[in-house]
Amino acid sequence: MKNEKTTDRRIKFSKMMLRQSLLELMKEKPINKITITEICKHADINRNTFYSYFTTPDDLLCQIENDLYDEIRDSVESSLQISTISSSLLEIFTAISKNEDLCKIIFSEFGDKVFLRKIMDIAYDRCITEWSSIAPDLPKRQLEMAYTFIANGCAGLIESWIQSGFKESPLEIAQFINKISSNGLQTLLTIR
Known about the structure:
With 192 residues, the chain is mostly helical. The chain is built from ten helices and no strands. α1 crosses α4, α4 packs antiparallel against α5 and α5 packs antiparallel against α10. The termini are far apart.
């Protein structure tokens, strides 16, 4: 039993060092310019250890992103039972804020541009359902187009928020986006 705990601790430590190494390197250059050798040298871990857990730097980045995505999704899903879009947004922004250092790298110029969109899509079903109840006469396609428009704006706002050093609180960002999306939906209802 003691050997298992020691082994688990070593595995966790090795993975943590590889993750930190990749993220440090991503501050300087894009993922497609980072080699396994650089990651291992920076982490002071041998290549065989790297290959025990990952196949490529992209694979390592994907694991880092999946862990963050799961954390955000889980916090949003746990709040969905009793929440509104606004509180779901707050959960997303709180989770991003809690992972400030990681998000600054993932959403940087060398980060993964698709990942932010994936985060925004966590709220898709919730938004369409809530908007359908508010505007039952609007065709679903119009609601989907409104979501796409708002989600892309949100993605840009989140990037700006992260890169500016989280000047506003997660609550302020959630309220701002909720206000804009609510006003946009009201406009859509009036021009129909």
